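Notebook B, p. 112. Complex prediction, attempt 2.
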Amino acid sequence: MLLVVVLPEVDTLLGPVMPGAHRTVGHTFVLPVAAGILLYYDTRVRGSSVLRERFEDRAVRVAWVALFVHLFAHVFMDWAHLDGVNALWPIHDRFFRLEGEILLSTADGFAQTFVDVGLDPETGERRIDAGGTGTTETVHVNNPIEPDSPENLVGREEIDRRFPIANRGWRLYLVLVGAFVVVARRFQGDPPAEPGK
Amino acid sequence: MAPTLVNAAFGALLAAALLGAAFDRRSVAIVVVATVLPDLDAVASLFLAGATNALFHNVWLPLVVGSFLYWDTALRGESRLRQRHGWYGVRVAWVALAAFVVAGVGPDLFGAAGANLLYPVHDAYYLVNGRLLYSTTDGTIQTFVEWGAEGPGILPLESPGTTGTHFVPSWVNPDPGTGTSLDAERELGLVGSGWQAIVVAAAASLLAIRFLEERRTGAESNSTFRQGEE
């Protein structure tokens, strides 16, 4: 399962070859949706499932969990980080970043700032801003392979590659909670074979 | 104060991860309630100045409850909890305690508001904030734990102040001091940022999937671990 979380970052390696590859190839929503449809088709719609036949029932569950983990723990988390993810690539090349808050207040009632719906002051047209940040042409998400936009890196003598582990308190919190759950499950005993004891 | 909804979401995720065979609607509800409990100290702040993120956000309460639980379930011969509620009761109690600390207090300690960890023995809010990274030119950089940090704290963490100087606003008590006024402007945060939205969405989807699954397999096994119902 940890491998599933790390694997999409392989798109950083594509960076030097394909501009704007990181947060695009491995971080699109299109791939997991397609995988989900395929998985659903294989395990539910058609008569005999390839996955179930070749492996066992366990594999079906592992596949669904892997998909859930990839979507929530990786793609969606990165959606809320730096310049976000290229959500609909390759159908539509645009990075989106999820940022905002939702609150109830006695002054404004229900308020949310994730999606900005308003009128364009110049044209008067309705426009919806869901946090678009740019395209593969304009957005470069820094990473240890390419710590800055390629044009900025040209001619730099020393390149500082930074591998962040936790840059905020809450990120350290998530790391620690993950570790806590793994350790806690080690200490847990099995349920009694005879129910009720 | 981290939005209580986010606390509850973390609680639900912990419940799904740790309850194991004791996972059902009732146990999840108990664990989520345990996660929300610490935030009730905001209500106490109406009578006790600066109780928000202090009265139920310290280490003493879980230490006492945890010691008692350990004594009952591991040390003494006959556990009352196990007698009355069986294996199910013991598992749910431990997970609820873990959720109280990790999901109820944790997000405040690692967030912006801070938690008054040693209150009332020593009065200072603490928060874990900083960065941890490896750089090829500067090596490992760590700024979460700092010995001799400024402020009133005695733990090696950043401290934003004491109950007297650092006020944590909440829906119940939005302004410093005790008492309540009807025309105060109140804000109830539901989701504070992008990542919190993801945590809430993940928890909601996870619970929906697990409960649907439970219904489909016909809830046959889980409830059998309960005892002393009827």
